[in-house]
Every structure is written in C-alpha cells, then in structure tokens.
Amino acid sequence: MLTSLTTVIVSWVVVCLVFAGGIWVFGRVGRWAWIGRLGAVVLTCVCLVCAIGLTINRPMGYVSDPGDLMRLVSPSHTDDLSPAEVGTPPTPAPAASLGPLTELPTSTAPVRSSSAERAKWNPDWHDEGGGVRSAKWTGPTSKATELVRVWTPRGYSPTDKQRYSVIVFLHGSPGSPQGVIESLDARRQLQDLIDRKVIPPSIFVVPEVNLAGGPPSCADIPGKPQAQKWLSVDIPTMIRTQFPNVATERANWLVMGISSGAYCAGRTALVHPEIWGAAGVLSGYDYPVVGALGQGSKELGRANTLSVMLARERAFPVWLYLSGTQSDPDSVNVAHTIVTGPLHSDDRIYTHITPTGGHNWVQWKGELPLIMTWWGKQLNHDHVGAEAAPQVGGDVTAEHKPETYAPTPFSLMGWATLTVSIIVAASCVLVFVWVLPARSRARHSRPGVFKRGFGLGMCVITLVVAIGLVVNKMEEFYASIGELLSEIG
Predict the structure, then answer these.
(1) Strand order in 391-394's β-sheet?
(2) Residue 279 in contact with residue 266, Cβ under 8 Å?
C-alpha cells in the first residue's frame, strides 16, 4: 500500500542508501567517472522525489496502490459514446418552475423495508472520533465499493428533533476522502458557523469521487464504474437511511467540490437538480478537461460543458457558487462564461474571484466559510416566486471579467525565480559533477567524504527545487511561499 507508514519509511531508507552510494561514486576520479556521478545525481533525485511524494500521499491518500497510479494516468477512450449514453440531463417537467422547497425524489427515499434490503444501505461505520465516521461501502445501485467519510455536528443524534441539512464535498484528482475534513479544518469551521447560526445544523459528507482509482468521470460511462448513480442515488439514499432526520427539501442539499471535484459538483447538480438545490464550484473549469468526458468526441465534451448544461431548459432553478483566483485562469473563465450565458427563472449565481492565491488547500480552506455564508443566506430567502428573474452577484459580471494574474518576476511562479533556480541547479551539476572532479584528477587527489556529500547534496537539492518550481508554475498550485508554508504547517 502506497499510504502505509512502512512504505514511507522504506522510501526514505532507500534515499539514504542511494545517497551513500552516490558519495562513493563521487569519489571516483577516472576519465569517464563523470557519467557515474551524473547517474548518481539523477538516481538520488528520483528517489528523493518519490519519497517526498509518498510522504505527502500518506495523510491525503491520493493513490493507494500502484494500480491506482496506473489507472490515474491511463487515458479513458470514449470516442464512440453519445451524450445520452453517459446520463441525459433531466427533461423539464410540464408543471411550472419547481422551487427550492421541492421535496427530494423517491429515488433517494430512505429504505425502511425488510432487514435484508435495509442492510445494503448500512455501512459498517468506523468511529474516528470528533464526530467523524468512515466506511468502505458498496453502493447497491452503482455497485461501486468506495470510502465514505461523514462528520456530524456536536450533539447529533438520529432521534433528536433537529432537522439537518446535507453538504456533500467532492475532492479532486488525484485525491481521496482521506484527509479532506482535516485539510479544510471542516470540523471547527462548520461547527462555528452552526453555532453562530450562519448555516443550519448540517452534516458533512465526503464520498470517493475517483471510482476504482481512475480519473473522475462524474458520469455513468458504459463499462466503467457508475459515478453518476454513486453520487446522486447511492450516497443520498444512504444518507437519508442512516441519518433519518436530514432535510427533505432540495434547497438543503448542497454539493460542492474542488478542482476536478468542482466540475463534478456542477455537473452533478445540473444532471440531477431534483436532488441538489445548490452547488459550489471551487477552482473548477467549464469544459471537462479531466476524465473520460473530455477525452471522447467534441459532441460529448461540449454536451457536458457546465455553461452549456446550465443554458438548457430545465424545471428546477440552480443556486451556483463559483470561486477561484486570478492566478487560476480556468476558474475565472468558467465564472465569466456562466455569468454571461443564458440563465433561467429563479437561478442564483454568485462569483468570488480573489486577486491572489493558488490551486491549493489553503485557498479552499479559506473559501469554505464564504460559500457556507452564501448558502445560508440563500436558505433564509428561499421563498422565491415562480418566474422570478435570475440573480447574479459577486466579482464577475457580463461587463467585468477579472484579469488573470500575471506573477511578478521573483514570485514563486515568476519567470525570474524559475530561471534562477534552473541556472543554479545546472551550475551545481556542472561544478560538482565535472569541474571540481576534473581538478582533483589533475592533482591526483581525491576529495574527502564531506566534500563529496556536500557536492551531491547541492546537486540533488537544487535540481529538486527547480523541478518543483516548474511543476508549481505549470499546475498553478502556490502563488506565494506563505501559502506553501501554511499548507505544510
């Protein structure tokens, strides 16, 4: 298992052994010894990157085994699929617009029948403490067997008279439910919001999104795990069965996500608006760039583009919260495209684009109380008459699209920072792999162990830092060192 402590320890032991071997190789002074030194640098870098990756992976559970890793990077071919085959958006009902207080459909009704049937909807919960429980559970409809974590507020009891709203959170890719509640500081933040009556008493549900360890599809792809049924049938039905005092109005059911999970949250709410009254798209995107929906035909991709789905005729209004940063162009583009596109009666769209910040847990942790505050306000004003005009608020309007963030030269994503890091790394490799050993050979001397270790260490550290900065620039993870240190802390 890639998340086991043993695997992490072994990876760091391997780094130490490879580093020790590299010190020995650096002591060779033959004519072609530079090839061995260069190989030692590369091998040590690879081992160090793997060890760092496994250390980060352990608390978050991004990938659990090598099979997950292979499935994550393997493309899903869906060229021959039509939009209808992956879940057709609901046909508008003949009645007038159905408002936020519409009852949840019978497809998610709690199971009260025979003990054998009900047993399918009873996960074997493990109490993690602090109001958190988790289970590896098989959805009776989707047949997916995945991890689900649930947090309940202080004093929760299935027999109390309180009615609880439901927040379902969808993680990104790679990712897993493991570590999400902790990274968001969700227990403290949500309990505080409940205590201050910003939001109603609510339970927080984190299901697995990347079914069978593969990239997220958010849809029922033929021959693949049925993600749409998992998210919009199995999870709601299980929650209503296990927690009998949850709210039964769609307005009180919010699905939200981050990154690829943000796209999934938006799509899930638009495919099944009869269940999800509100959706939060945090650092998301419009076109399905991750997963099977974007790897098929153009027709399939366009049909599953959020702005296109939102423009279709539907019987239910949508409450949609979109957030991101100016350093994350995808989040700015999806917000502007949706705000400027066709909306329908009773739709409520709110955008929040910050001038600074990256694509990371520090950003999303800070966004959690903001989306909760917005949702709480919508719940306090949910009696909207039929055919009311759409409401649009926030930082993005039809006339104003925030500029995408251009990092300053010496910021964490700046071109000067990247250039300097690459030059320093290349210089270290040149000096310690070629120049100094050549001088030692000319003097018929051999550098000491400390000097060899220092040289190898400088090469490895500067190369790993340069690689990390390049990846950070490409993926737009951290806009500042402060964000990086906050997440490490």
Answers:
(1) 126-129, 132-138, 145-151, 202-207, 165-170, 253-258, 278-282, 319-325, 348-354, 391-394
(2) yes
Band of residue 444 on the pLDDT scale cut at 50, 70, 90: low
Let me know: does 293 contact 227? Beta carbons within 8 Å. Answer: no
Q: Which helix (H) or strand (E) holds 147?
A: strand 145-151
Provide the residue type at 43 as one letter.
L
Task: Name the phi and psi angles at 480, rounded to 5.
Answer: -150, 160
79-394 maps to CATH 3.40.50.1820 = yes
Looking only at the bridges linking them, the beta strands covering 145-151 and 132-138 are antiparallel
CA atoms within 13 A on the CB side of 426: 6
Q: For residue range 163-190, list pLDDT tens digits in order.
A: 999 999 999 988 889 889 999 999 999 9
pLDDT category of residue 52 using cuts at 50, 70 and 90: very high
Q: Are 443 and 450 in contact (CB under 8 A)?
A: no
Domain locations in the chain? 5-60+408-488, 79-394
Sign, CA torsion 202/205/206/211: negative
**102: helix, strand or coil:** coil
Q: What letter would DSSP give residue 174?
A: S
